[in-house]
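Q: I'm teaching a short session on how sequence maps to structure, and I want students to see two examples side by side rather than one. Could you give me a first protein with its sequence written out and its structure tokens following it? Keep the formatting plain so it prints cleanly on a handout.
A: Of course. Example one:
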Amino acid sequence: MSCSGTNAYRHGTMKDWVISVTIVLADGSVIKTRRRPRKSSAGFDLTSLLVGSEGTLGLVTEAVLKVTSLPENQHVALAAFPTTRAAVRAATCLITSGLPIDALELLDPYSLGAVNHSGLSVRQWKEEPTLFLRFSGSRQAVQDQIRKTQQAANVNGCEKFEVSGEKEEIDQIWGARKQVAPSLQAMKKDPSDLFLHADAAVPISSLAEMIDWTHQVINEAGFTGSTLGHVGDGKVDPQI
């Protein structure tokens, strides 16, 4: 229940959206947390304790979650770079700028190569380290975010910057991000081949080095794989 995702950069992870839980403990007793007003200083924060335990303290049978409105005036963008380090530098600039970007994702050349090879996307993507970004808000706010994002990208050697607010193009661009895992699975040479997925989190200053090292290890082992991730949330996902 502490999972991350593409929305985590701006909206937080799953744990930030849980109001209360009903949980069954090992002895069979049932606990429901937070039977009190939204704001209270009384007692321990059992909800956070139980959610953070990720099932080790008991079995969650019910969860009450927050809801929010759908984003308005949604736009997406992609920024392609010659190297992973350049892409990470641009991402670092955006993170430290405090721009309220909805999502900030990084796909490596192997990820985009897998999408191209699979045919799951209607487009062919340039196989370079690429940032995928999502924006929402008022018209003026979104335009300001896009302008500052493009400036940060250009300063760090961006070779291509594309942005769109059209639904069809949004689905194509953001769809490429979502199609990486099924694209890699489609590259199996034998039905018995395994698909392995891992999570890695390091300081963003070490992110480019870790991604390059992961590529080296995968290639030396003779495997097929890629590295992509929620770079805005400080996490990447090696997939083999």
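Q: Perfect. Now a second example for contrast.
A: Example two:
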Amino acid sequence: MPGPSNTLLIEGSFEELADELSHYIDEVRRKQGDNNTAVQTEVTPLLEKNQKDDVLKKLVTGSAVLNSAPEKEIIAAYNLLVHLIRQSSNPNMFLPRICQNLSNPITSSPTNGTGLALSVLTTIFNILPQDNDVRYHVFLAILRVIRSSGSFELLRPQLKNVDTWITQWETDEEDQRKLYLSIAEVAEEASGEEEQSYLYLLRALRTIPSEEATSAEARQLSTRALKSALSYPTHFDFQDLTSLDSIQALRKSDPILFELLDIFNAQVLDDYNDFKDEHDDFLASQSLSDDTLTRKMRLLTLASLAASTQSRSLPYQHISRALQIPSEDTEIWVIDTIRAGLVEGKLSQLNQTFLVHRSTYRVFGEKQWTEVQGRLDTWRASLEGVLGV
């Protein structure tokens, strides 16, 4: 994977090495039964005329066959080609094609193909200057290889560098969005990386300018991000979505989906059940799991209940009624809500109450200010009573 800059040390003149590589490409082709073209024959007169870029065009065009070369020779062959490309007056013209080749399967090594491709791509990435924007295309190729192999663990250590790279490459918002989406897709297909996938999907969404908030792309990404946030079992804060113009635009383009967001952002289980009654087939049409959403809504409802109670003591019967669960399951749901980080407190089996130590408001508006005022009034009255003793 990308690391400190390095160099390729390969001895020989351009003419010698280009002739050697063209001969090798022809050999690989012949072993596959392709005798129609001979790269060496095409390259020889161009070398005599010192037409390096024309030579490289022939070599790069024929280089796709290197993916079927013997496993032990693939890295050396590609490194030789990269070395030759670096001697061009315009190496950036050829490198994207090499990256595309390496994004395709290494057919001669199904088992080790990912490692071989990443080795060459990493070499290309690291020999380029840090501010060379071709690095952007190389990194996209690396992401494609990692995605095809499901090797997210290889990408994880590099994520901390993405912001620095974007600054160095001076990428515009469209290219940033493409990069973030590529990372999101790699994470989405990896087991247990839903949070990373959502975070980079959200970053992609933030690159959309306000004036494009109602565009087709903005709508597609917004609905995708919204459904991911709803479906991700441990995502409970929806303020990161509601603050975006493209999400707010769904109020008009996708009003039912936006209504569902509003319920998960600030309302409770009763409201969610009313929504399901009113929009009977909506969840299924959006590939949303009612079981997942109902569980999340119960946790959020308990969080709201804990935040709004002024006594800081919640009877089990109030909790079971609000969550629409059997009373014997109350403690299990409280524990799950604590584990989700939504509340902190202590269960009292003796008194059948949950003593709230900390709770988090899901939204903070006029209603919440009123609740805080009421709580302060209660505390003031308590203090006045103590001081009056």
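Q: What should students look for in example two?
A: Point them to this: Strands lie at 313-315, 343-348, 353-359. Also worth mentioning: The two ends are 71 Å apart (CA to CA).
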